[in-house]
Design goal:
homodimer; alpha/beta; Rossmann fold; three-stranded antiparallel β-sheet; 10 strands; 45% helix; globular; DNA-binding
DNA sequence: TAGATTGTTAATCGATTAACAATC
DNA sequence: TAGATTGTTAATCGATTAACAATC
């Protein structure tokens, strides 16, 4: 039974399902049951059926799920076929690492441009992505529909850059800075990648283990 | 009332509390109530008091919490004062970006070494972190207690590198590869930073918004 | 003292798991 | 047909929120 509200817990599990189904597909697996899927992913068959049922009926009694069909359905749900576009703000080490190494296209995104202020790189391109001066950001956004901005700028210009992006109408910000963005427009979606939070959680878990051992 | 089991939900919120308390402290704020904290962080006073009560009693009736005291308590809880050590595996763009730009010391970690196989960088150092050849990993780990390994190696060597790290006795792996690690030793803690999962969640959320608008 | 705010217990809400009729 | 497995409803579990006595 399709639901109209999807909980965050479900949304966060979908990419993992997708990733694993891709692996299965590449390995030539044709069908899989919810219980096999659950076992591989460390969750339960119930949870997987419950999660999928939020979006429709993709399986067949007595058979399970066709791997390629389910993969493709989840891709659709996640918006991978929507031809999203993205730009990168800040071509330092991290911005460059993402442009060069991260497979945006596997998530359905096309990188259309990058922006920086350093004269050494403005005018060059990285992996065929042209690097423009940050001053031309508004002009670019006015001329090119852009769904997501990847924020990898230095901390001190983070907030102002975010403001400019929101004013210019981007739909989402993928935020790699350690700054908590305050965004006036609630329609703009901010997805944070807080490295420090992740490392501190790891720190807690290894420290906790130490404590338990004593 | 101190708890012995702390839920994952609580653990994931602690770093945010810590980050915000740091900001408050730097801004010279002396005291804060759970309701003010909740309002700023977009959660509830109840939740914050409930979360903190897992670890002890840090507040005072009628007053609230002393910012510096609470900050310091949470730092202790997270293990920031444990003088953890870390090494970086793979000094490509991402590894380099982390070494150069991420403030490991703010999370209580000291970077003691990095490893790579490229002759161009083995023997150099990045931000005073020496880069050794990956072949010397085991020897280094035998001689230097190492809590966490930061995994930023290419996908094809990810799993084998993880195995070597686990065999050599690291306690935690901060995994930036898109590979789901399978680790034999359940005592080793893996913290994944799955960029693609994060971007796909963002993709879902902007796509969903589109759909709702139609 | 009176007002504010804690830590904790109780109530509510939501998410996960179990059970099962339907059916391939 | 018999076995397997779905989608969904019901039961359980855990997390969040509300309420309040204690007290600074």
């Amino acid at each position: 039974m399709k639901k109209d509200h999807i909980s965050n817990a479900v949304i966060r599990r979908l990419p993992r399902y997708f990733r694993y189904l891709n692996d299965l597909h590449e390995a030539g697996v044709i069908r899989i049951s919810s219980s096999a899927l659950g076992k591989s992913l460390g969750s339960t068959a119930s949870q997987i059926r419950q999660d999928l049922s939020c979006f429709g009926e993709f399986g067949q009694q007595g058979y399970g799920y066709n791997v390629e069909t389910l993969r493709s359905e989840i891709a659709d749900i996640l918006g991978i076929n929507k031809e999203h576009t993205a730009i990168v703000l800040g071509v330092g080490n991290l911005g460059r690492a993402l442009i060069e190494n991260f497979h945006f296209e596997r998530s359905g995104f096309t990188l259309t441009a990058a922006f920086d202020t350093s004269p050494a790189i403005v005018g060059t391109s990285v992996r065929n992505v042209p690097v423009y001066h940050a001053d031309s950001l508004e002009q670019f956004l006015a001329e090119h529909h852009t769904d997501v901005a990847v924020l990898t700028v230095p901390q001190r210009v983070t907030q102002q850059t975010a403001h400019r992006l929101v004013s210019a109408g981007v739909q989402g910000i993928w935020n790699f800075t350690n700054i908590e963005l305050s965004i006036s427009n609630p329609a703009v979606i901010v997805e944070d990648v807080h490295f420090a939070d992740s490392l501190l959680a790891l720190s807690y878990m290894i420290s906790d283990r130490d404590a338990a051992a004593n």
